[in-house]
Input
Amino acid sequence: MNSCNDFSPEELVSVVAKLAERYAGYESTSVSYDTMQLLMNAVLYCINETGNCASALRPEMTAQEAYDIGYKLVVGKTHDALEMYNRIESCFDDYGMICLHDTMQKGMPEFFRHYDPMYHPQDTLLLLDYPAPEFDRTLAGIDAIYNYLVCIDKEQSYLRQFPRGSVIRSLRNYHTQYEQLFESVSELFMRNSK
Amino acid sequence: MNAADLMIINEKTQVTSIMNANVRTEKFGLVLSQEDAHALMAEKRATLLEERRVELGESIVPKIIDTFCDSPFISQNNYLQTLISLQRIFFEYKNEMNDEITDDELLHFMKEQFDGICYGDTDYLETTCLEIFASAVRAGYDGLPASDGSGEYAKLDPVPRWDHALFLEVLNELVQ
Output
């Protein structure tokens, strides 16, 4: 098994139907097409998660097994991302940049509060306005958030090697109201430090 | 096994469960033939397609039969046609209420109005009672979990219904 394409539509539909029963609280015998589509996306997301994890792959895996493993991987990655966020937060510095502050201090806690690995794992929920260097914008859901936090972590580690004052000075030299820009602190610093 | 095979097996199971319901409805003088069961299934397929909904396995039809079979407004003459209307209305209003209501709540509500307010008129049930109720549910009405769908319409009904005190007053006047 490498991806969702390895499973027949019937296999996938039976996984989605099981999830849909749970979604409806076992109190509804039918769901709308929109709900079914949303849950199909959730199942595909989790199965892809299994496909992307070499250690989780097994030959002759059923779609249900691939989904179950993928779901556990999504939950595990969410815990890892939260741990990483808390670690970054312990010595986080936004250097006065408003969009970095808002994304990390306001957005991220909301993400962890509202992220739903079971029914909406594919939702990123945040716009991630601050352009973290090397962030892969093609990702979605917890993959996107995890990757974003890795990028922020690297950027923070890099910036910590320099005195805070010199970073602020170079940002101010670039623009007197740099705080309102939607640009990466480290990229501006590298471009403008002499 | 492909999707077509699965659908055939599923449909056979559903026809069997509809036929099994005859054992429970016979005492009310209501019986469905194999053809009736197939007609019900065909109508349900068309309704699900029209309402853009998917059944998850178990069919709602036996539940509709069990809920409505003791209604004084259903006889063998209108049994099939009433079931076809009720299942269409059921799926229509699952959508209209944005799935904010469980199957049981909706069926309890439908049955109560069908017998009490509509006197067996499925048009009135669909275009008046459920329309008003769906608007309330969409607007955030949340009295359902406590009532399971029973006794809800009286709180929302804009039409003054039977007034017991007035009836007695008029009766007294007539007697005097």
